[in-house]
Amino acid sequence: MTFPGSEQGRDAFLKVFKDVDDAAQDASEADPFPAYTDDDTQKGLLGPFCPTSARRVIKALTMANVTPDDGVLDIGSGDGRLVTAAVAAFGAKRGLGIEVDAGLVELSRSLAQKVLAGKERMMDRIEFVQGDFLSQVELVRDVAWSVIVVFLLPDHTEKFADLLLHHYRRGARIVALVFNLNEIPELKLVQGDEPENIYVYSKEG
Ligand SMILES: C[S@@+](CC[C@H](N)C(=O)[O-])C[C@H]1O[C@@H](n2cnc3c(N)ncnc32)[C@H](O)[C@@H]1O
Prior knowledge:
Elements: H1 7-30, H2 38-42, H3 54-63, E1 71-75, H4 81-88, E2 94-99, H5 102-115, E3 126-130, H6 137-140, E4 147-150, H7 157-169, E5 173-177, E6 189-193, E7 198-201
Parallel strand pairs: 1-2, 1-4, 2-3, 4-5
Antiparallel strand pairs: 5-7, 6-7
Helix pairs in contact: 1-4, 1-5, 3-4
Bound molecules: S-adenosylmethionine (SAM).
S-adenosylmethionine binds at residues 44-47, 49-52, 74, 76-78, 81-82, 98-101, 104, 132-134, 151-152, 177.
């Protein structure tokens, strides 16, 4: 298979983000878990930046069976790795990451450009928007996303449960990282990997 959605894309993704993960590993030895306080909740932050490792990104998107037919949305996209991998390594037709931290949005764009070096036209399929995803109604609710990724603190699930159910009922797969979505009983688990903490929900499965 050739790029897009190829082994070449997956290798480029893993190479770029493995370097990022290695650097983060060094930093985390000094500061093992990102601080998250009530003050962050007040500001509308639904979780701290804590990236999914590049290897687990590939695993999660494989479990969700992402294909070129998919539009993938990550609500709280960090450094953009889920969206970048969905397009570069799985050939998704569109990827959108919404991230509240402007620095991470800028970083997402530059990392995606690195992964897609020589394939710049594929950048047209990737978008990173800065802001609170809960206020981006036309992007997160009105577009028919087929895969939605969520890695946010479970204390806040009620704030985005309706959004997930809106897409789930239209046939979207929901990919939850680290925290399962047991608080939303309507969601049917179709793939779960407990040791890796990856959960895929779909009403079609
Ligand atoms: C645990 S990280 C996950 C990052 C990425 N999805 C991943 O798995 O690597 C959660 C991210 O969500 C962002 N975030 C938290 N609340 C948000 C909100 N209301 N709107 C947009 N982004 C938010 C944080 O800044 C952080 O980067």
